[in-house]
Amino acid sequence: MDNEDRAMKETRRRERQSALENTDSDIGLCGWMLVGLSLLLMLVTLPLSIWMCIKIVKEYERAIIFRLGRILRGGAKGPGLFFILPCTDSFINVDMRTITFDIPPQEVLTKDSVTVSVDGVVYYRVQNATLAVANITNADAATRLLAQTTLRNVLGTKNLAEILSDREEIAHSMQSSLDDATDDWGIKVERVEIKDVKLPLQLQRAMAAEAEASREARAKVIAAEGEMNASRALKEASLVIAESPSALQLRYLQTLNTIAAEKNSTIIFPLPLDMMQAFIKH
């Protein structure tokens, strides 16, 4: 379906361009007379008139020539040299390079009723100079205004979590919408990027408190799991020591050795009950 839509759009664009360019025959008899007089005037005033007739456009520009108010057959001219007739012809230069502009921060009410401020960047270029001149007054201003409204419309269908996590999807959706809308103007939207999403201060504090509480909850769970694992290890160690009473005395000695390694410490030496039983019997 996408390929069929693109083919239909391309066909319609070519038909519109052809209709605009093939208008020389509509200037009428008076028009042709004026063109003849202009040509005669140019020939009479040679070589001075040559400086008025020769025009140059740069590599990244195209010239749309109007003859008696109608677009000249053949469409855009350039780059390089082209000729115009004095008095009857005029031309408009169109820049074909990629143009970049910032979308001003837009206050948007999301789907979950949260107000956020979002801005972005749009990259576009003039794909068809004839349509960009003939079909719209100011293609650049129209594209800028359309980008602002499209940004608000697209973000209005998303909730806050989607805006924060799915920026690429939102940018792609905006690019498709803008490209479809500007196709009749001869404009090609190449790329859209979401720059920044600004949240209200109260919402930032609430999200920070929520994140902190979530981290504390995870820390408590991890600490509880550590205590449980330590308890299981102590239980297993006690079972091992219970099998050999002498192991407990060796553990006492290891504890004393650890304590003695530190200075300025008071050592309490526990005596095993087995040693005391001999004195109790006597």
TrEMBL record:
The chain crosses the membrane at residues 32-54. InterPro entries: Band-7_stomatin-like, Band_7, Band_7/SPFH_dom_sf, Band_7/stomatin-like_CS, Stomatin_HflK_fam. Its main location: membrane. It is found in: Membrane. Residues 52-211 form the Band domain. Keywords: Membrane, Transmembrane, Transmembrane helix. Belongs to the band 7/mec-2 family. This is Stomatin.
